[in-house]
Amino acid sequence: MKCPRSELARRVGWQAATDAGSDANMVRDAVAQLSDRHRAMIYRSHYLGRTTTQIAAEFSTDDDAVKHELHHALRALQTTLRSASDRPRVR
């Protein structure tokens, strides 16, 4: 059920990076702060294209619980990335 931190961070960082290094690192750091469960759900949903029903079956839970957890996981990423983007960048 787990998604390796490095795999999701690599994929998210690669797709989100617009500034060669710092944006990718910022995204990797944010992804690394997620719980294993949230990281795995985001990976399955956004990179493997699985539905919330499919993810629910894999995690032995219901569809609404997956929607709830995905919402909170994405919110946590958003909060972390906003906070990180407010910090001055070192070039």
Automatic annotation (TrEMBL):
InterPro entries: RNA_pol_sigma70_r4_t2, RNA_pol_sigma_r3/r4-like, WH-like_DNA-bd_sf. One of its GO terms (biological process) is DNA-templated transcription initiation. The keyword Iron does not apply. Gene3D superfamilies: Winged helix-like DNA-binding domain superfamily/Winged helix DNA-binding domain. Signal peptide: none annotated. Keywords: DNA-binding, Sigma factor, Transcription, Transcription regulation. Belongs to the sigma-70 factor family. ECF subfamily. This is RNA polymerase sigma factor 70 region 4 type 2 domain-containing protein. It comes from Mycobacterium kyorinense. The lineage of its organism: Bacteria, Bacillati, Actinomycetota, Actinomycetes, Mycobacteriales.
